[in-house]
Structure formats: C-alpha cells, structure tokens
Design a protein that fits this description.
With 330 residues, this protein is an alpha/beta fold. 22% of the residues lie in helices and 19% in strands. The chain has helices at 23-27, 58-64, 75-80, 91-104, 162-172, 250-260, 276-282, 295-307; strands at residues 16-20, 35-40, 109-119, 127-131, 143-147, 175-184, 201-209, 232-234, 266-269, 287-292. The strands form two sheets. The chain has an eight-stranded mixed β-sheet. A two-stranded antiparallel ribbon has the order 4-5. α7 (276-282) links the parallel β9 (266-269) and β10 (287-292). α6 crosses α7 (276-282) and α7 runs parallel beside α8 (295-307). The longest helix is centred in the N-terminal third of the chain and has 14 residues, at 91-104.
Length: 330
C-alpha cells in the first residue's frame, strides 16, 4: 500500500479518519504539530499475535548479521525481516521498538499536546504460551509455544516490569512523564497460579513534550477527570468487540480525552483496533484519526465510528453531543 508524503487530517469537529497500514510509517507522514492528543494501547509483549505473521528465526538472523541479544535492531530492520510488534524475541527489543514508535510521532504532536499510553506487564517463561487472539486463560483460543532466551532479568516466573522499562526509555528520549495512572481491573478472570496474587492492574502513562527551555506547558482540563482526581481508577475490563480482545473501556479513556484534548482538537490512536478511542473523541466534539495494520480491525473501526457508541457501555457520553449538521467522515 503506497503511503502519501503527508497524511491529510480531518479539519471539522466530530469527524474521523482511519488509515490502514503500519503506524511506524503513518506517524512519520503526519503534518508537523497537528495533533493535540495521542492516546493508545499498543500490543503488549509476548501475549498474542492478533493474527499477524511473525518470523520466529529473527533473533538468529540478527545475530548472523553481527548483532547482539542486548542491542535491539532498528525497528525498520526488525519489520523488514518479518518481525511483529509485541512478538519480539526479547522484552528489551520490545521496549526499544515501542519507544521508537512514539518518537516517530513526536514531531506531529503540538507543543501543548499530550501522549497517553496504556501498557500492561508480562511474566517471563522460557517456554511461553502465545495466543493467536483472545485473552490469556479464557476460552479455547488457539495458541503456540515459543522458547525465549533466559539471562539477566529474564528469569522463570519473573515479573518483567515492562511498563517501567518503557517509561524510562521514554524519559531518556526527552519525554516528560506527568502521571503513572494505575488502572484497577476489578473483573479480572481467575488464574491457576497458587504462589502469587492475580495481576489486576495496568499502567496508563501520561507524557508531554520536553520544551527547549523552562517547564512543560500543555492543555489540561482538571474538571474533566474522575471525581477526586486520583491516579488510581477502577474500571472493569471491556468485553471486547469485533473479534478484538483488548478493547479500550470507555470509562477509562473518556476522562483522558476530555481532559487532555481541547474541544475541536485532534485525537490520534496509532493502534486503534476497533476504534473505541476514535468514537469517544468524535462524540465529544473532537476530531479523530486512527491507524490500524489489519484490514479486519480497520474496517471494524470505520463501522463502529459511523454507527456510534453503545450508550449503555458509555456513561457520560451522549450521541446527541455531535454538532448538528456534522457527520463522521472516513
């Protein structure tokens, strides 16, 4: 698929566009300082493939070219050799790739813009179970086994602290971390382990751009966040939609969008899946743009934005908030 030199952005309120392709390419095509808010949940490391193909021999190919396990290859090399984001042979590679992704979008973010990234952690296992789709431990979803090299912090049963490693990598790329919001998931399914507590939270990091001088200044509407304005929020895990098992809960992202993007501003989700963040943005009077690498999910995102939100699943959002005479554009 040929990508234009610059991606046109929606100019009118309550309009959205979904572009199919690799977010790494697409973010590099955005107009300079055109985005008010980037909000997304990228694929987590070592959990599922989302139906994408991955080269399981990629580590050996990198070593054969003189690389090392400790030094991650550039993302462009990784994908051109059949690598899939989230399926890196080592968690260190994943952290490096993810930081590179968001660095690609830095130029498109306005000086007063925000970046919100939802990311979960993973336990290490030398022989890990990879789902083709679906949540770990739920249903009879197809899965595969793969061997992951041990060494250093990569030890059996080790909680890898991937969110923290990612946040530090972002700080080293000159991003300012403003909040580590803890998402408490009260409806997590039971797990078979008998020697540890259930993992019932994820991290939602709020980054802003580091200015050339002085302190960071950015748009933020404190009146739009949850009651109490605390950095821990309890929101049930969404049931998913259109075959996507990791769909954003609306109650989690609505306060992020309303507080971190001005009315009429542009919201970007570079891993938009079935388009939940885009739907919330559109129906709260913002413009929206999504990137999605799979045809099935990009089509679902377009459909979901066009058909609107499920009001029962979106407290506080009214479909009548869309301005009269405006329509969703793809």
């Amino acid at each position: 698929m040929e990508i234009p030199q610059e991606i046109p952005i929606p100019r009118q309120r309550s309009r959205a566009e979904v572009h199919e392709g690799d977010a790494y390419d697409l973010m590099g095509k955005l107009p300079h300082e055109s985005v008010d808010l980037i909000i997304t949940s990228p694929p987590y490391w070592g959990l599922r493939t989302y139906g994408l193909d991955h080269n399981e021999d990629i580590l050996q190919e990198w070593l054969a070219e003189g690389g090392t396990k400790e030094q991650a290859p550039p993302y462009d090399w990784y994908r051109l050799h059949g690598g899939c984001l989230g399926m890196e042979p080592l968690p260190e590679w994943y952290v490096s790739n993810l930081a590179d992704f968001f660095q690609r979008g830095a130029a498109a973010l306005k000086p007063g813009g925000s970046l919100w990234v939802n990311i979960g952690d993973t336990y290490f296992a030398r022989w890990s179970s990879i789902r083709l789709d679906g949540r770990q431990g739920l249903g009879d979803n197809p899965r595969m086994r793969r061997k992951t090299p041990m060494g250093g912090f990569r030890q059996e049963k080790q909680l890898l602290l991937i969110p923290a490693r990612f946040a530090i990598a972002m700080q080293e790329n000159r991003w300012i971390l403003r909040n580590d919001l803890i998402w408490e998931k009260r409806n997590v399914p039971p797990r078979p382990e008998k020697d540890r507590l259930r993992l019932a939270h994820e991290h939602f990091y709020h980054f802003v751009k580091r200015p050339k001088e002085g302190r960071a200044k950015y748009y933020y509407d404190m009146s739009a966040v949850e009651a109490g304005a605390r950095d821990v929020v309890a929101v049930n895990v969404s049931s998913g939609s259109d075959g996507h098992s990791a769909t954003f809960p609306l109650e989690l992202i609505e306060p992020r969008i309303l507080s971190s993007c001005p009315p009429g501003g542009l919201v970007l989700d570079p891993f938009c899946g079935t388009g939940r963040a885009l739907s919330v943005a559109v129906h709260s009077g913002r413009r929206a743009m999504g990137f999605e690498i799979t045809s099935h999910f990009s089509a679902s995102a377009r459909k979901n934005i066009k058909h609107g939100l499920d009001v029962d699943d979106a407290p506080g959002i009214s479909l009548t908030e869309q301005e009269e005479g405006e329509e969703v554009l793809f």
